């Protein structure tokens, strides 16, 4: 797309962003319905299905970038996406009604464990940047495989934690709302009431194809825009592309907040953070070389920024701070400050 003028590239980027957003919302709804009808629940298969369907935009971007050799785009989208997706929780906090912040309403050890799990997975990706590309296994980074295995094992551990009441206790006046299992027991969303299972699967497949196509256009047009503006493709991916691929999470998360499923909104964000890092394995396979070995100082800094931002919420879930300032909890205000400071230093 390098031959297209900047104006047309921006139009392509915005259209693909809109398709990603709308198709992503449809994917979330159809995935829940398929999950409910086939009784997948919190079994490993159900968790993997939720992870893949929720990250299809990132999968498409990674596949396209790896195919065209745009390695900085892969690293920027995935490591930069951690910070962006964590920042989304600030939007959820702002949307919460009442005098208490979101972290207090959902505060439990269960969410802290889920956040620590995402932090560990991200830390492995940061460590992988220090391993040279010559140390690979069939052109795959050894830590890319370790990350994927750790994610599978982590899902099993998180599932056990979710089933342990000791870790799910909250304050008496907290309002966590429904969790994953409780939402599934409540039934299928009204949008698909009366629809056959075949109809839902076809809608899921159609939304998946649209998402993948939009992801390819997003990566190609985004890379071309970055080149024409003289911005590093990695920085553009870590900010604009990462934000666009997170649009479905914003919509579905806000929907959860509006109906009172506060715990679910944050749990889906942290689960998405953990799964997103596993896509480095896909990048290695498609690109034919260890992607994370190409990470530079900026990429490492983006990964550390994401870890720091998640650590703030890990603490706030346990501390249960009650006060809000400017309709936000102290943790969300700190997240905004950390992200702005981090991006300012990166551009410097």
Estimated structural class: mainly alpha
Biggest beta sheet summary? 2 strands, antiparallel
Identify the CATH architecture.
Answer: Up-down Bundle
State the helical fraction: over 70%
The whole-number mean of residue pLDDT values reads 84
Element-level helix/strand string: HHHHHHHHHHHHHEEH
Q: Supply the CATH superfamily name.
A: NCX, central ion-binding region
Number of strands: 2
Q: Please report the distance between the alpha carbons of the first and last residues.
A: 29 Å
Low-confidence stretches: none
DSSP helical segment count? 14
Strand line-up across the major sheet: 1-2
Global outline = globular
- Structural domain tally: 1
What is the CA-based Rg, rounded?
A: 19 Å
- In what range is the share of β-strand residues? under 5%
Instruction: Please give the CATH class.
Output: Mainly Alpha
Which fold name is given in CATH as the topology?
A middle domain of Talin 1
């Amino acid at each position: 797309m390098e031959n297209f003028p900047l104006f047309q590239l921006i139009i392509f980027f915005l259209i693909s962003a809109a398709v990603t957003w709308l198709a992503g919302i449809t994917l979330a709804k159809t995935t829940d319905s398929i999950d409910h009808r086939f009784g997948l629940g919190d079994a490993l298969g159900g968790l993997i299905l939720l992870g893949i369907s929720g990250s299809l935009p990132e999968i498409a971007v990674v596949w396209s970038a790896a195919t065209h050799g745009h390695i900085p785009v892969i690293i920027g989208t995935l490591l930069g996406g951690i910070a962006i997706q964590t920042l989304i929780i600030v939007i959820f906090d702002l949307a919460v009604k009442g005098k208490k912040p979101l972290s207090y309403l959902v505060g439990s050890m269960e969410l802290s464990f889920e956040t620590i799990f995402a932090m560990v997975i991200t830390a492995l990706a940061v460590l992988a940047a220090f391993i040279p590309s010559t140390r690979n296994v069939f052109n795959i980074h050894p830590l890319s495989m370790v990350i994927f295995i750790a994610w599978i094992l982590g899902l099993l551990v998180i599932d056990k934690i979710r089933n342990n009441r000791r870790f799910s206790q909250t304050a008496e006046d907290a309002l966590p709302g429904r969790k994953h299992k409780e939402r599934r027991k409540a039934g299928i969303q009204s949008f698909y009431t009366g629809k056959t299972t075949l109809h839902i699967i076809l809608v899921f497949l159609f939304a998946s194809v649209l998402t993948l196509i939009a992801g390819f256009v997003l990566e190609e047009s985004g890379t071309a825009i970055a080149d024409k503006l003289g911005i590093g493709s990695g920085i553009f991916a870590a900010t604009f592309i990462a934000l666009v691929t997170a649009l479905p999470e914003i919509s579905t998360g806000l929907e959860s907040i509006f109906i009172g499923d506060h715990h679910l909104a944050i749990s889906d964000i942290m689960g998405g953070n953990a799964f997103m890092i596993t896509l480095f394995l896909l990048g290695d396979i498609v690109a034919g070389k260890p992607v994370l070995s190409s990470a530079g100082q900026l990429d490492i800094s983006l990964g550390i920024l994401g870890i720091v931002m998640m650590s703030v919420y890990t603490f706030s879930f346990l501390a249960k701070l009650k006060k809000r300032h400017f309709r936000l909890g102290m943790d969300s205000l700190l997240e905004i400050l950390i992200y702005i400071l981090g991006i300012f230093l990166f551009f410097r």
